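Re: the request from the purification team.
They wanted to know what the chain is likely to look like in 3D before they choose a buffer screen. I agreed to run a prediction and write the result into the notebook, where they can find it.
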Amino acid sequence: MFCSSAKKARLDENVEEFTTDSTSFEAQVAAKKKAALRTVGTVTPVEDFKILIEQSSPSFTDVCKQMCTLIFELINNSHGDSLFEKALQCIQCLRETCINKLEPKIFNDLEVLLKKQASDVDGRKDFWKKIVAGM
């Protein structure tokens, strides 16, 4: 069976309408997430961090502290090096943001703590080696 051109045109309109509605829905979900975001989460920490910095609430220092805490959680909760890549992405984002905001002390303090922790815990020396190699 063949569709008439009128039926095909209506089908195309419905598909276009559905596509527009789904895009609109995705935009609404993203907007709601931005509005409700209060802390840096573990699923998309870099994205969360950037959104919170843009919102300026909580303060820049508080958001950086959240990111630092999350970095340590990722490192400490990692089975082997499974979460190391995510932690490294967070470190890189924090570093770039601290440079752009002229707040290097926040990042430098994190580096000192990371080095100290890595030297104390055998399984985390590999993480420190990745930091040194990547930075």
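For the purification team: Residues 5-36 form the longest helix (32 residues).
Please add any questions underneath this entry.
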